[in-house]
Design goal:
- The protein has about 150 residues and is of the alpha+beta class.
- The chain folds into two domains: about 5-45, Arc Repressor Mutant, subunit A (Orthogonal Bundle); about 65-140, Alpha-Beta Plaits (2-Layer Sandwich).
- It has five helices and four strands, in the order αααβαββαβ.
- The protein has a four-stranded antiparallel β-sheet with strand order 2-3-1-4.
- Strand 2 (about 95-100) and strand 3 form a beta hairpin.
- The protein is elongated, with a radius of gyration of 20 Å.
- The mean pLDDT is about 95.
Length: about 150
């Protein structure tokens, strides 16, 4: 089991904001020797707490100026229906996140397209053709004053 101490908390906080920070700089910021810091980072990686490092992309600069969260309800509440829906969504490039949730619908999707017209095409030609889908509700993102996805 990994220690839940202040050093590990600081390491995780720093790496979540600056994943490419050099080990020597990280060690200096949190007050450990570089070797002790590296050992802790490796333990956090090996334990699975740190699952990876990635680039955070600017959707708008990539041409995706339309972002929406879409709630999807399924007609049947079966494992087979969920599996079929998840397989179909896995192939949809517009869907950047898919979460199975509890409540009045089964899924929340983060959908990114270039504009409203291309979203309508996704809504109609992808979601609208899936036999498992019974309800679709779209919530358009107007601004994201806090977004800590990494």
């Amino acid at each position: 089991m990994i220690k839940k101490d202040n050093y590990n908390k600081q390491i995780l906080q720093e790496l979540s904001q600056h994943g490419r920070i050099a080990n020597t700089e990280l060690a200096e910021k949190i007050g450990l020797s570089p070797s002790a810091c590296l050992r802790r980072v490796q333990e956090l990686e090996n334990s699975g707490i740190i699952r990876g490092y990635r680039a955070i992309l600017d959707s708008e600069l990539l041409g995706n100026g339309f972002i929406a969260y879409v709630t999807v309800g399924l007609g049947e509440h079966t494992k087979g229906s969920q599996d079929a829906f998840e397989r179909a969504i896995a192939n949809a490039d517009e869907v950047t996140e898919c979460h199975n949730v509890t409540g009045s619908f089964e899924y929340i999707l983060r959908v990114e397209t270039s504009n409203l017209k291309t979203y309508k095409t996704f809504h109609t030609d992808i979601l609208g053709t899936l036999p498992q889908v019974s309800t679709i509700t779209t919530h358009v993102v107007m601004d994201s004053p806090k977004d800590q996805r990494a």
